[in-house]
Design goal:
The protein has 419 residues and is mainly α. The chain has three domains: 121 residues, no CATH class; 148 residues, no CATH class; 102 residues. The protein contains 20 helices and no strands.
Length: 419
């Protein structure tokens, strides 16, 4: 905390009445005369705290800090002009005061206000924990501010995304994920998992409701595939049970999830999608032109089924791209991700070196040469490829880095989204 410029900014306000109903300023004058400065400051702090005027409470706490430390009382909220060691001691009290005020805001349910204070002192954890417990509110303005703090400002992106789903719906959640995805890949994957579960619940419920309207016996299958088995009538006349654009987007994102339950639900969504009328199955982006069919093969491979259908299809899509044609490298990057996810690291390493070695790591949406060499323990192959590609630094590092044994723990990471 270097100076008062880092303090949260709010409109100051002060209660005119003390807790006993007496004019606050008269009460302070009386306390100065009867109890001295310490008692007057303590009374001010107590009254402001009781009144919930936490912004003014911060200034009162800083006034007390200056008085206790024997520093000039004005300006009470600034570090400028203070010499050491007084500056350091005051800064400690400054942080303590902000922490206390932030906690008061949290206790009052004012998450956005609390965030501005906790963020100022670099302590986001209390707000993140409060957001985990936050159940929403009928106050639309407050809800919007809380979601902004949680998702856009990064206090707790996963919970913020869940709140978007719960209160604004699937469309808004997908838009948020596309426009401002969490910077942490693990958090992004958690958000995608929440999206999959949300849409699966909605679709499962809608299919059951349609079956009930038709007078059919509604099975207790937990899967959508179980509900629709042998029920082609559900898709007659281009019928559908959930917004197809939402379904397509969710299935596209689903290849990033690593949780087994989320993968199973994503498979169920793709299985439903492939049963839709061809007129509703819009063409996707390479290498997933058939959005539901192609993602279904990929998801099956991730889930532990035979990976060859997905691998064979992706291999057929490989091209020899020009060095400046990034889009043409997408199938190879998707294939590298799949090989990595199913543990075939050496194959991924060779493919990357052959097809993508000309790309810098920042242009890759899959693991790079170094990561794959570490995963496979093949420093010798990294040396070969580094020499061929003219990468002297990685070549020397690969020669000096001892190869890891197959039993050693290696880095783990989900594949990155490429479509």
């Amino acid at each position: 905390m270097s100076d008062d410029a880092s303090r949260p900014s709010e409109s100051p306000s002060s209660p005119r009445m003390a807790r006993d109903g007496v004019d606050l300023f008269e009460a302070l004058d009386t306390t100065i005369q009867t109890g001295g400065p310490e008692a007057a400051i303590a009374k001010l702090i107590d009254d402001l705290d009781s009144a919930g005027d936490y912004r003014a409470l911060l200034d009162a706490l800083l006034l007390k800090a200056r008085h206790d430390l024997g520093l000039p009382l004005l300006p009470w909220n600034s570090l400028s002009g203070l010499a050491e060691p007084g500056r350091g001691r005051f800064e400690e009290r400054y942080v303590e005061a902000i922490r206390l005020v932030a906690s008061r805001y949290l206790e009052a349910g004012e998450i956005p206000s609390a965030w501005s204070y906790f963020r100022a002192i670099g302590e986001p954890e209390p707000v993140a924990a409060a957001l985990d417990r936050y159940a929403g509110t009928d106050d639309a303005e407050m809800l919007g501010r809380v979601i902004d703090v949680a998702f856009q400002q990064g206090a707790n992106p996963r919970r913020g995304f869940e709140l978007i789903l719960e209160h604004y719906g699937t469309c808004s959640a997908i838009t948020a994920l596309e426009q401002a995805p969490p910077a942490d890949p693990a958090i992004q994957v958690g958000c995608i998992g929440a999206l999959i579960r949300h849409l699966h619940r909605e679709l499962h419920s809608n299919v059951r409701a349609d079956m009930a309207r038709r007078g059919w016996t509604v099975t207790e299958s937990p899967t959508i595939a179980g509900l629709i088995a042998g029920r082609d009538e559900l898709f007659a006349d281009e019928a559908y049970h959930v917004d197809v654009s939402h379904l397509s987007a969710t299935v596209r994102y689903s290849i990033l999830v690593t949780d087994r339950d989320a993968l199973s639900l994503a498979l169920d969504l793709a299985e439903y999608g492939r049963r839709l009328s061809p007129r509703l199955q819009f063409e996707g982006s390479p290498p997933f032109e058939r959005t539901f069919e192609d993602h279904l093969d990929y998801l099956k491979a991730l889930a532990g089924d035979d990976p060859e259908p997905a691998l064979s299809r992706l291999r057929r899509r490989l091209e020899s791209p020009a060095e400046d044609d990034f889009e043409a490298t997408v199938p190879a990057q998707v294939l590298v991700n799949l090989l990595t996810r199913i543990g075939r690291h050496e194959e991924a390493l060779e493919l990357l070196a052959e097809r993508l070695g000309h790309l810098p790591d920042q242009m890759l949406s899959c693991p790079g040469l170094t990561e794959l060499a570490l995963r496979s323990g093949r420093m010798d192959r990294l040396a070969v490829h580094s020499r061929r590609l003219g990468q002297a630094v990685s070549y020397l590092a690969s020669r000096l880095q001892p190869a890891r044994s197959a039993n050693e723990e290696r880095p783990t990471a989900a594949g990155k989204r490429t479509d």
